[in-house]
Amino acid sequence: MMTNPSRRRFIAAGGVGLLSFVVGDSCLRISPAEARYKKLPLGNLNATQASALERLGDALVPGAADSGLVYFLDQQLSTSTEDCMLMIRYLGVAPPYKDFYIQSLAALETACLRRYQKDSAQLSASQVAQLIDALLSGSLLDWQQSLPAAFFAFVLRSDASDVVYGTEAGFDRLGIPYMAHIPPPAPW
Fold first, then answer.
1. Kind of pairing between the strands at 19-23 and 26-30
2. Is 187 part of any domain?
């Protein structure tokens, strides 16, 4: 277990593939996918928010749900701004980043209720596809968030891409040689 890890030490120790999850008095170093499989408790997101993120993230980047997108986001929302690896950090949005995700998810649920008269968990696959098209095109007129819907979709797609393809296995799935600047000490 690392105490007061810096970003450099964290990346050198395991990179994006392994994250530290605190469960009770223990600190587990596992991948977001393993955290999802083990159904570890979430610290920042409730079940409704997690379900919406998982469904939308998987529609934006297939495989994001199984790769543990929700656990990656939830864990990163607990880190310091300096150690945060979420895309939002690099886009000029002031922390805390949890506010961005929570407010965007609330706007998403409001838009779903207005557009489909049901929440995001009840949408059909074709409705999710329509919703994503509306998010990405900026045509979701009932979006009630200060930042545009397309911005939220961009950030979520970027985070989902990091989780799915930001590992050695992800590079392999793409057929791209993995040439990490700081190679992980073990396969993820």
1. antiparallel
2. no
What span, in angstroms and rounded, lies between the C-alpha atoms of 65 and 139?
26
User: Residue 54 is encoded by which pair of tokens?
Assistant: 């998982």
* Helix ranges (DSSP H) in the chain: 7-13, 32-38, 47-60, 69-76, 97-116, 125-137, 149-165, 168-174
- Which range of residues forms the domain containing residue 92? 7-174
Distance CA 151, CA 168 (A): 28
- What is the rounded CA–CA span in Å between residue 108 and residue 146? 13
If one counts the domains in the chain, the total is 1
**pLDDT one digit per residue (tens) for the chain, 188 residues:** 444 444 444 443 444 556 665 555 666 678 888 888 988 899 999 999 999 999 999 999 999 999 999 999 999 998 889 888 899 999 989 999 999 999 999 999 999 999 999 999 899 999 999 999 999 998 887 787 888 999 999 999 999 999 998 877 777 888 888 777 666 665 54
Tokens of 19: 């994250």
